[in-house]
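hi! just following up on the protien thing from before. the input was this:
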Amino acid sequence: MSQGIGSIGILGAGRVGTAVARAALKAGYEVRIATSRPVEDIALIVEIITPGAVAVTAAEAAQADIVVLALPLHNYRTLDAGALADRVVVDAMNYWEPTDGAMPELGDGRGTSEAVQDFLEASRVVKTLNHIGYHELEADGRPA
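and the predicted 3d structure came back as:
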């Protein structure tokens, strides 16, 4: 599994989260994936779609060296900010009104990561991976 370069926790097991997981595994990271569902509900899916990754609770994923947010943007408010304190948190989310609904905190030209950083005030939020399609993460990937 890990080649000693660190761990990545991914919150979200959709197309983006699983593509990031496969790329991270290929690069030698230990990968932990969590969703809002119980671990036993996602374990088989994680094993099949991201062989080598481990299904865990959100709290366990939050203990990784880097945590990737790959969930619908409106769900950032459900995160445990304390569990993500002092972590590098990669914000791979985009605002999409049909899914996220109205989000007043994004008014006045504020970006999504500004809202996420305000919520996760003790984390270091980095915005990336939101501008590339999930399918391109693997197709355009480079060797480790």
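Residues 74 and 103 are 8 Å apart (CA to CA).
The chain has a mean pLDDT of 88.
cheers
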